[in-house]
Amino acid sequence: MLLLSLFATSTSSSSVVRLSRTVGERGSGRGQFDGPRHVAALKTGGAVIVDGLNERIQVFDRHGDCVRIVEGVTTPTGVAIGGPEGDTLYWAESTRAHRVNRLQLSAKSARTAADPGVGRPAVSVRR
Q1: Transmembrane residues, as ranges (predicted)?
Q2: Does domain 35-126 have CATH number 3.60.15.10?
Q3: 0.85 exceeded by the pTM?
Q4: How far, in whole angstroms, is CA 75 from its chain's centroid?
Q5: Across the 127 residues of the chain, what is the mean pLDDT of every consecutive 10-residue run?
């Protein structure tokens, strides 16, 4: 199982809020992981998790349910959330792909943000 811990801090007070939830188990199915690494928190309370050895990225809602899978990711090595609305997913692919990709979480397809010119494999997004 993977234990997600999200922390919120406030500079105006010394309070720290700790939210924990356990999601997933070992495997290759929806909500399962093989080599989980790199977690990015979503504004909605969910999380995006790089599932390294399954070569995909999984998106979880605030209840811990897997709501989206980005498959066909070549050696994913990092993930971040950005954009003005906090709904743009960026991930890095190294070793064989050497590129950074972006996906608007409301979109159905991904785009390459930076690519050294190597061929791009198909990336699919499932809800």
Answers
A1: none
A2: no
A3: no
A4: 13
A5: 51 54 86 90 87 92 89 87 87 80 74 48 52
